[in-house]
Design a protein that fits this description.
It is built from five helices and three strands. It is α+β, with helices and mostly antiparallel strands. The relative contact order is 0.15.
Length: 103
Amino acid sequence: MDDRQHCIYMNRAAEELTGWKLAEVLARDCPLHDIVHHTYPDGRPFPLHECAIDRAFPENNQERGEEVFVHRDGHFYPVALRRAQSTMTMRTSLARSLRSRYQ
């Protein structure tokens, strides 16, 4: 993500896990939160200002934990995240996500 929290790169695994192609995400021209992290699992909207990932950027905080993201088709999947210094790395729990998709 860039300093506006817009996604600037996705590899093929990220595209598969999110259901979004990089070109589609770039065309939306909005924070990545609004694409993959916009809803709590109980269905309530998840505003950007309540997001710990969002707050980590301007405060330059160390963040580590797990979140639940929203696939393009609406199903939720677990994500492990780590933020250090000025970069954010998100590693999706591929095994859990794929297992739930194919059960």
